[in-house]
Fold each of these.
Amino acid sequence: MAEADAKLTGVPAVAMATRGVGASNLAIGVHTARQDSTPMVVLLGQVETEFLGREAFQEVDLASFFAPITKWSATVHRADRLAEFVDKGLRIATSGRPGPVMLAVPADLLGEEVHAPPQAPAEDPPRPAPGGAETRALARRLSEARTPVVIAGAGAGDARQELISFAETYDIGVYAAFRRQDVFPNEHPLYLGHLTLGTPPETLRALEAADLIFVVGSRLDEVTTQSYVLPRPDQAVICVDPDPAELAATVPAGHRVVADARAALSALVARAPSRGPARDWTEAHRAFLDSSTVPASRSEGGIDPSQVIAALREVVPEDSIMTNDAGNFSAFLHRYWRYNHPRTQLAPANGAMGYGVPSAVAAKLAAPERPVVACCGDGGFFMTGQELETAVRYGTSILVVVFRNGMHGTIAMHQAREVGRTAGVEIGEVDLAGYARSLGAAGYSVRDPEDLEPTLAEALASDAVALVDVVTDPDVISPSARLSDLVPGKNHSTPG
């Protein structure tokens, strides 16, 4: 919830938990913040100072435990220095590439009284900009390139209008990094697609043919780069990021620009030639539109997950906040939902299961005037679905749509591909609508495609916390594959 709140608002979140066991449970959310570049301050309880190092009750060396998944982790040993540590943590969390920091506070410190330190006025983190000579050189390279493209990541999220102006000024096509689809309007003629798991080959063609790749605000993670294959060594790369450590951290870059995305894009627009280049992105944009058009159902039992997205597109307002869990079902959302409005996607780049419902609760609390829809598989929902009770208690009217195929689909697909069979992936029959009602929410079940739109519309219009349990066809395992094709001779029946 804290990670989703900070991702949506841009304001650092504060998450608190108890010592060892609570801290361990919090770790997955902290790791999500780290890989998603989300600012967060984590305050954890710790055993009393005199017990440190004795493996006291629930003791863990928290500074060491959290070091690999935070920008900074430390233990505070004096109560009068806690404010100093928090101030430093906030600066680290919001500077350069944003991320989480962790402070462990021994229990005996929490009972001490200290004088409140003088509070300096809050300052925005610095926004470095490229120099004049560097900007002119970059503008010239962008103008002279034949087929340049942009890869835009989370760091460009606060520079949406500047990115649109930059793309239009230089007539350059734009790709969204993994699960950053709302960084650029998807139906804009310069949008080329989403660099995701199983990216359609047609979507990748413009990137493969590019002679210059302009990377802004993206750490070029494994998924975005298609397993570190793109950009290729023979393609020119310009990377823009405010954090020097992130420039060319995963892929070599010929030109590295230490700059804030908004400042760099604005400077480049101001330095653009009077007559900009003319390039034709019609075919590349059409490839995206074709790939994101919902096809006819492929289901032979149950509901094709693509039809759930089609129904959502008919019922849910386009500017709704869409959150999603991890799992194969999410590939259908990423493929067929078009993000045309800013701040409409909350999705974990690290693939953490259990993200969907909590992030939706946080989103509704942060933006109560906006519709919020959580899309989940049954596996992810069972991890954190009990947060429906939190939503009910706080009056956050979210819509949760569960794609229930009765299995851990991603694991099943990989097992089928690698060893030709599945094992230990089944999920039993559960009355999810009844479960939702037991937590105070409205519950609906859908087994017939004809019932999708009216049921979703009713749930959304109820202005209540609502769950729609959609029984999907487990054989339709991804937008491009059937599980039965991966495991010859095995039949996959509809759950329940």
Amino acid sequence: MTKTELLNKTACSGEERLLLARVLDKLELTRTRSIPSYSGFLSPQEQASVQALLNACGHPRSVFWGGFQGAERAVCMFLPDWAEEADFLGGEDCPIRALRACFTGASLSHRDFLGAVLGLGLDREKIGDLLVGDGHCDLLILAEIQDFLLLHLNQAGRTRLTLSPLPLEQAAPPALRVKVIRDTVSSLRLDAAAASGFSLSRGKAADLIASGRFQLNHRECLKPDRSVAEGDVLTCRGLGKCVIKEVGGPSKKGRIMLVLERYV
């Protein structure tokens, strides 16, 4: 299948086509020159798009990595046969670096740090997760911008920052807060699962899905009757994210038991 045929098959928009074309260029670089290559940081939706492309390409050797297990934003790395995956997940060859920005006397948010970094003229794809803690923020970034940030990122809003390199394994992801929901549904439809996960009426959930507010496994889904399964991720703009953790057998009344985790 040619590059054009792959893009015609997998891209749903002009913006997505440009993203996937860049990823294909990285894959071709690894195939022709036998060297590692990698994309910029990808959002969960972009990762889903790239994974669909890789499936269509015959599953080339690749790995998504954001600097720590469970990172939301991740780069897609293509590895030649000679390369060891472990060297690119945490070793010297890893394209990801961590910086710690320390501050005092202020309460800063993810938005404050993202605005400060983007305000320096950097592209979003060069920045991974921003892990805001008590008095510090750990920034996951591409190695190519590390020196630039060390030199220029000295404040967020009006708050002064002290920036220093941080070993990648010491980056501190915040503890996830989830609410466990146990419910029964009449069928494994997206609108039924969404109603349980986000405490909505089924009609309201169906309306939100049809309006384009919902994603199933980080891909837009406009069909309330789409089937869901254990492990699926449901995301709604303005409401957040939940995961179907377990699909149980039917209850005495013939309803299907679900266990969901909603991120709060």
Amino acid sequence: MADFTGDNLSGARFARVNLADAEFRAVDLSGARFRGVDLSGVVMRGVELVDVRIDGEIQNLVVNGVDVAPLVNAELDRRDPVRARMRPADPDGFREAWGIVERLWDGTVERARGLDPGLLHESVDGEWSFIQTLRHLVFATDAWVRRAILGDPSPWDPLDLPWDEMPSAPGIPRDREARPSLEEVLALRRERMATVRTVVDGLTDASLAGHTEPVEGTGWPPPESFPVRECLLIVLNEEWHHRQFAERDLDALRTGATRKAT
């Protein structure tokens, strides 16, 4: 077991490192940045949490004896009541939710068209560029709709972009440096979004309550059976959050308030 007592590791970079069950005592983490990390089961006591920003999947987060996750979700729903519609329970709800996604993305794309095309390849604060965000959503649709629900074992387009922390898998593209035009990516997006529209339009109570058939071969998601509702909720979640990230970054690109992550 490695022991770093008294060592100065300021500025160190940890990537794909297993720190499960590690112990941190009297450690200075000020200014640290965490991206794509698993903090499940972490216990923090005697901490100073000041001027901290956390974005991610938050459940059962207890702060000073209070589970704050329901409070956060309730506040987010209050700020934007449409957000609650991204958790539909029946076929009509999924059709409504996808209609909202289509409408909101139309507006976001129009905003992006108003920028210099080169800016759409620019990262804001180390996040994906606008083009990369669209490419990732193509991947999400390919994974959870075309592969999981429709049964295509290899639905990928060369422009598909998995999340950065996903381990490489044979046959799944990962060209983070590709620079397709906005129109090229939008053509791909329109095709994939039309596929989702066809699926949700055909939903019945029985099909929504059903499970997918495992596909053959390796890939993402794994060749297992998944609840259809779960697959569609994942896609809605991806679409909702990444559009919000895109809007945030378009604001920064318009004002020139961009900076690279450290």
